[in-house]
Amino acid sequence: MGTAGLPGERVGIVIKSPSTRYFIFKPFRGVELDVGTFVAVEVDGVRVLSRVVAVRHKSAAVDPRLIAQLDSEETVRDVKETLGVEDALYYTEAKAAVLGARAGGRIYRPQKPVRPLSYVYRTAKSELEEFFAPRGDGTYISIGRIKGTDIPALLDAERLVTHHCALLASTGAGKSWLAGIIIERLSLLDIPIVVIDPHGEYSAMSIPAAEEGRAVAERVRIYVVGKVNTEYADAAFKRRFGAPRSYVRVGINPRSLPLRTLERILDAVYGLTDAQRRILEEGWQAATNYGERQPLTTVEELVREVLEHGKHAAPPGYAGEMAVRGLEGRLKALFYSSAVFITRYGETYQGQPIRLIEPHAYVTTPAIHVFDVSGLDSLDQQVFLAVLLDQLYRLAVSRRSMTTFIVIEEAHIFAPASSAAISRSYVAKIAREGRKFGLGLCLISQRPSKLDQDVVSQAMTQIFKRIINPHDLKYVMYVAESLDDPRPLKSLDETEALITGMSVPVPLLVTVGPRWTCHGGVTPKLRELA
Question: CA dist 525 to 522, 528, 529, 530, Å?
Fold first, then answer.
């Protein structure tokens, strides 16, 4: 982009340029700049856009001998009158992050730093519109506007979905609000969206909040997972939105459990001996036809088949009998005590039929499939997600699915960094391999440092809202290549987000737009609790 016809107003002078990524400049007297303001400089005759990321007020009165005298109002007044007006004592420095220059449809960052004493220019609206114009014929969604402008904040939907994304923020920073906006906009592209909802927030998307939200709300399908009491949640939903919550109660056929997942669960909860493990491996593979889809039977029939096919792997004599009985007890205890498993055909809970999950429908029907797992404990939540992701992945590999966007709220529960989780390997598999088969992943977490590093590193778009915890800030800097300094994330308000990665041409500071459907993640007021 050349400089002809776009000189703009000179607003400052570069005083330091330590890197090709940013520079420090001193605004001229009377120039007001805010964080987020766009400015331009010249590098080798090319006009380069930058964004102000910090504004600092400094004092020229830094001599310790002078500061020691500022011990009373009278002394301060005398010093000011002696040295001159207050403007002579104070000045402003601004830090600007280099965004780049546009050549045709491509944005590139100069390989040279800005020269000190270069002029800094204010940008024109037309210049910003040209710089942020969409590239080529891609598919874009708007989630708000670029901060300080009325230019739409556009995300490349193709790259956002198929190359995975992560939405990271502290609690109360508005991450669920923004996640809802992204889901709403993507749903109008007629793709299946699967939402794992540990807090029961996303059911509210079935209620339109604006005229644009009617088409979105009609696409919402709610599934309550397992044999859990929804009486109070349903009553609260009706009080708030004036309409009953419509959903289908679903559960898992025990036969659909992958063998390694079942082994990990039994070992973690009850413990497995080597003999029991051998019996299970032989019996489970045969009873479930080595992973093929199986009809629902009673738990008693399933356990009997497993033991019948696996007992030949038991040691001889009394030890073998004890291993078989011990495995029988563990399998029955798991399937009968867990809320996510259907134990017999036609099972109901609170008068509602429990239907088997239908993975094929979730990846072939363009809708927002919300799985409310809020009534389950963390282990059952992980078990459900492990089974669901395993089956979605199998369908995708066999090319029997549409491009599907999987949104996992509180992702640090399902793919933690340090502790073991039943679901972690399945989340990791989709993070590593899902793109090739049309499975996109969105990880949402309020504790980024608790999230598995290998999983989140596969997210090629990172969306940040306010983050305060120093461990999380350090982690964010490690996983986000284009984020040099995470400290500005501490000052973002609920309406703002910083977006980096493949779905945006340059890092964008965004003012988040309105929701089209209702938002379920509202903190109760003190008076309501009294």
Answer: 9, 5, 7, 9
Q: Could you tell me the two tokens for 506? A: 């340059």
Measured CA to CA, the distance from residue 432 to residue 459 in angstroms comes to 10
Domains in the chain: boundaries = 10-131, 140-146+151-246+367-525, 254-337
Of the CA atoms within 13 Å of residue 1, those in its CB half-sphere come to 27
CA distances from 238 to 208, 241, 242, 244, 374 (A): 14, 5, 5, 5, 17
Assigned CATH class of 140-146+151-246+367-525 = alpha beta
User: Phi and psi for 392 in degrees, rounded to 5?
Assistant: -65, -40
| pTM to 2 decimal places | 0.89
471 contacts: CB under 8 Å, gap ≥ 6: 449
Q: pLDDT for 263-278, tens place per residue?
A: 989 998 899 999 999 9
What confidence score (pLDDT) does residue 320 get? 93
Name the one residue in this structure whose structure tokens are 């290998």: 454
Report the range of poorest mean pLDDT among 47-56, 58-67, 194-203, 237-246. 58-67
pLDDT of residue 90: 73
Whose structure tokens read 């960052």? 109
